[in-house]
Specification:
- It is a single chain.
- The chain contains 12 helices and 12 strands.
- The protein is of the alpha/beta class.
- The chain folds into 3 domains: about 60 residues, 434 Repressor (Amino-terminal Domain) (Orthogonal Bundle); about 120 residues, Rossmann fold (3-Layer(aba) Sandwich), CATH 3.40.50.2300; about 140 residues, Rossmann fold (3-Layer(aba) Sandwich).
- The chain has a 6-stranded parallel β-sheet with strand order 2-1-3-4-5-11, sandwiched between helices. A 4-stranded parallel β-sheet has the order 7-6-8-9, sandwiched between helices.
- It is globular and about 65 Å long.
């Protein structure tokens, strides 16, 4: 049941009110009410948003005809990398597909994070009739952009400025880490290990924070021996899994900070004669293509770069039309994809027990 918020009689409900009532982010509300077909959201999340909107009497204001000003018909997407991982290519598709709905052209440029290259791109693209720029990074991180970006309508994707003066869209990694761990706990596992990503990286820090929050909310003590610092590669998942299973009290479930480390985790467990999920559960993060073809298929969380691209375009358009009140950071939900690496029997047993 959603909780109906008390609003002043003279105030119309806002998207923020709907988000607070449904217990989701504004980005999720936007995706649900706009009917975005590619949004990977659970049916229960969609229902909560729709019920909250009905209770509050919120009506989405649609833009109607998507007319494009002739003097601002282009968008430039600048990425620091495009080939080392699929994330920026996926984010670009989200921007491009949403922009095409509105009649805008989107150009892609790769800077490799080089300031001089970025200045050259900006100089060349400034000759186009620009709506604005979207700047994206492979890793979620802080960026220090040249002042030239602040002279343009700019939205940051998967990154943020130190002073938060530019609007940004990032994944909800804290909530994602909590969701993954909570899913294992609710399935009946209580000795849960974490093979995290690189130390000093935003995603690793935030997923660890979510992991600890989930343990705390279920009164499970944090055990530092169960947390291992990986490096996103299969070998670190393999090595740390062996180390975890050699503990006097080994884990009954392992949360891997990404799907590639989960792949290495699988190999180590197989070498030790252990079966997933009969002997131990495994959950990943990213929802890479390989996760569907692992044996058994890997339960994981979606890294929502496509939706982030759609939302970044919406922010860019809102800013251009004066709708954005000021700089904002939107954190996009990382939905859980349940497959076969977490025991359905354990989950059923937990449900019966409670």
């Amino acid at each position: 049941m959603t909780r109906k918020r008390r609003l002043k009689k003279d105030r119309r409900p806002t998207m923020m009110d709907v988000a607070a009532t449904a217990g989701v982010s504004q980005a999720t509300v936007s995706l649900v009410l706009n009917g975005s077909p590619g949004a990977k959201l659970s049916d229960s999340t969609r229902r909560r948003v729709q019920e909250a909107a009905r209770e509050l009497g919120y009506t989405l204001v649609r833009r109607g005809a998507k007319t494009v000003p002739e003097d601002r018909s282009n968008i430039v997407f600048i990425a620091d990398e495009i080939t080392t991982d699929p994330w920026m290519a996926i984010a670009f598709e989200g921007v491009r597909d949403k922009a095409y709905e509105y009649g805008f052209n989107v150009s892609l440029a790769v800077s490799h994070g080089d300031e001089e290259t970025e200045k050259m791109i900006l100089t060349q693209m400034s000759r186009l009739p620009l709506l604005g720029l979207i700047y994206g990074t492979i890793l979620t991180r802080r960026v220090d952009l040249s002042p030239a970006f602040r002279d343009q309508n700019t939205v940051l994707l998967n990154c943020y400025s130190a002073d938060r003066t530019l609007p940004s869209v990032v994944p909800g990694d804290v909530l994602g880490g909590r969701t993954a761990t909570d899913h294992l706990i609710r399935a009946g596992y209580h000795r849960i290990a974490l093979i995290n990503g690189q130390q000093g990286v935003d995603a690793s820090r935030d997923r660890l924070k979510g992991y600890r929050q989930a343990l705390s909310s279920h009164d499970i003590p944090f055990d530092a021996a169960l947390v291992k610092p990986g490096n996103w590669e299969p070998l670190s998942g393999y090595e740390h899994t062996h180390a975890l299973m050699e503990l006097p009290d080994p884990p009954d479930a392992i949360f891997c900070g990404n799907d590639l480390m989960a792949l290495g985790c699988y190999d180590a467990l197989k070498e030790r004669g252990l079966s997933v999920p009969e002997d131990i559960a495994v959950i990943g993060f990213d929802n890479r293509e390989i996760s569907k073809s692992m044996h058994p298929p890997l339960s994981t969380l979606v890294l929502p770069h496509y939706e982030m691209g759609e939302i970044a375009f919406e922010l860019l358009l809102d800013n251009a039309n004066g709708r954005q009140a000021g700089p904002a950071q939107i954190k996009v939900e990382c939905p859980l994809v349940e497959r076969s690496s977490v025991s359905a029997e354990a989950a059923a047993g937990y449900s019966a027990a409670v």
